[in-house]
Amino acid sequence: MNSFKRPTENIGLYIHVPFCKSKCPYCNFYSLCNNNIADEYTKSVLSSLESYGKKLNRTADTLYIGGGTPPLLGEDNLSKIVAGAKKHFNLTKDAEITCEVNPTSADKDFFEKLFKAGVNRISIGVQSGIDDELVALGRKHTTKQVVETVSIAKEVEFTNISLDLMLGIPNQTIESLQKSIEFLVSLNPTHISAYLLKIEPDTYFGKNMPQNLPDEELCADLYEKAVEILSEKGYYQYETSNFAKFGFESRHNLKYWHCEEYLGIGPSAHSFIDGERFFYPSNITDFISGNSPVLDGDGGDFEEYAMLTLRLAEGLIFKNVKYRFNIDIPQKMIDNAKILSKIGLVILDDIGIRLTPKGQLLSNAVIGKLLDL
Questions:
Q1: Is pLDDT above 60 for 40?
Q2: Does the pLDDT of residue 2 top 60, yes or no?
Q3: What SS3 class is residue 294?
Q4: Quick one: pLDDT band at residue 284, thresholds 50, 70, 90?
Q5: 145: left (phi over 0), alpha (psi -120 to 50) or beta
Q6: Architecture label for domain 11-257
Q7: Burial of 221 (0-12, 13-18, 19+ CB in 10 A)
Q8: Is the overall model pTM greater than 0.90, yes or no?
């Protein structure tokens, strides 16, 4: 184990629900197209929560239930998982508890039971506000069903709702993107995630390249337009792909970007605890059988911390580096930042180093250059 200073005492919890009704052609997440072992899977999750709770003796202040399609686990099983997290990780009273849903996977009864269990944040996979684009993405819902789902969630008194939007998808234009954003904003969510479509080789799209994909130049224009419109609508960009009304940033996702600790449970779930990274292989049978996660090396050093925090609007803050690592920013990194600032990709001042909107568009390359030490 490497020398590691805990950034905070509280950790985040992530539960992976690997069930879907069908596999989206672009999806690279681990999932199965049936849920006939949902109860058995839930028992394994609860057992893992109990054993890790005893082993780690830590408090959690975020819980994120993702997938897959978590509603396919059933509202009763999801409620048991929330209760298990509260019991074994003493979830704080103000904990952010998120559950992902699809527009066709949640009804009023589902939302009511989750709300009663303590879930206080809903993340809905919308992806587009144009029905033809949803069809091209292989999504099973319509924009009408999105409106209905958000309406029901609000009726049940969920006030923290995040919506997902995809950029660079088949047939998308600047005009259709504007319509999609206007559609999402009309639903008044507190948070919007906007991701560029990435074609992974092991997906259906990877093996059957879709027609009418925007080229690289148009993708850049789409991203810049999304940032511009969302800002005008009151959603500030706090991370490369995430936008929120002030005070509604995803606290759980910020743990990743601040290189804070989190425990992931379920096949394909990753963890970062006490300076070590480990993960469960993408095999539900292994997980249910009680197989241990696989060690993935040390984590949390300066370069990893810098790489993650530079994705945030706040960037790499000098005083935070000094507190966490008891070092100053390497001079070579300062020199690199000066060069990049001259071409409008970063801002370097007495507070720290942060990417400009143009720099965010090229974040991987810019961060790579900054860390070329």
A1: yes
A2: no
A3: strand
A4: very high
A5: alpha
A6: Alpha-Beta Barrel (3.20)
A7: middle
A8: yes
